[in-house]
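Need residues for this backbone.
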């Protein structure tokens, strides 16, 4: 009998705060560097950004000898294939994940969901997550939107017992190191007053988070086929974030 996969989502109702990038970075880090078996259900309909990223990554590997050799060396050293990325609509996402589990054993299945709590299908899918991580930045509009999102989930799903959700955590993303002082202390007091939890690890605002495979063959950070380059991981806090998430979802 297959083990039960844990369902994890980086989710918020505000676009542009990094939920898709975080999904890819953490999934790739855990799968390729930490030895966990993961899958991704891209239900951010209709753009399906992660599925499109996988297509770009595959095309680059097929057309570029540099990345083809990287993929070969990675496969021979790890002895495992790339994790699956499956497109879905929000309403079918859990069923798609269940079908994935029938084809193999996955430690974690990550979901990339649309940013809304006004859609019943999205709410139903969110209610089936084991853990939800909501990226937030020190922008008043983003912060207020994310807090509303988190409060709705907490009050309507978690505290009422209508969801599987075991943990809901906010995550500081796009942090300017010059600001990580009094401003964040004020924001975190607001978060605490709302009885919400925030991760200790924060991610800096850095261009490396957008670096994908390219014809210049620069070190890759964001990819569905490769983990973030170890030199680029340094200073990104991706390793600390992944370890903190692991302590929460895989105690």
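Answer:
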């Amino acid at each position: 009998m297959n083990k039960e996969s844990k369902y994890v989502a980086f989710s918020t109702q505000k676009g542009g705060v990094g939920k898709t990038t975080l999904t890819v970075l953490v999934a790739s880090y855990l799968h390729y560097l930490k030895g966990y078996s993961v899958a991704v259900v891209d239900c951010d309909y209709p753009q399906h950004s992660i599925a499109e990223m996988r297509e770009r990554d595959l095309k680059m590997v097929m057309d570029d000898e540099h990345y083809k050799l990287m993929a070969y060396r990675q496969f021979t050293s790890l002895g495992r294939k790339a994790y699956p990325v499956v497109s879905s609509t929000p309403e079918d996402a859990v069923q798609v994940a269940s079908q994935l589990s029938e084809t193999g054993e996955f430690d974690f299945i990550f979901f990339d969901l649309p940013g809304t709590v006004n859609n019943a299908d999205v709410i139903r899918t969110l209610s089936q997550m084991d853990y939800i991580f909501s990226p937030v930045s020190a922008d008043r509009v983003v912060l207020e939107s994310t807090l509303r999102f988190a409060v709705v989930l907490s009050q309507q799903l978690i505290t009422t017992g209508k969801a599987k959700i075991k943990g809901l955590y906010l995550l500081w993303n796009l942090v300017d190191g010059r600001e990580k002082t009094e401003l964040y202390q004020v924001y975190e007091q607001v978060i605490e007053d709302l009885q919400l939890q925030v991760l200790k690890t924060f991610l800096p605002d850095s261009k490396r988070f957008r670096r994908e495979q390219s014809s210049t063959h620069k070190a890759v950070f964001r990819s569905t086929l490769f983990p973030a380059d170890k030199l680029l991981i340094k200073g990104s806090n991706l390793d600390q974030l992944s370890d903190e998430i692991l302590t929460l979802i895989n105690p």
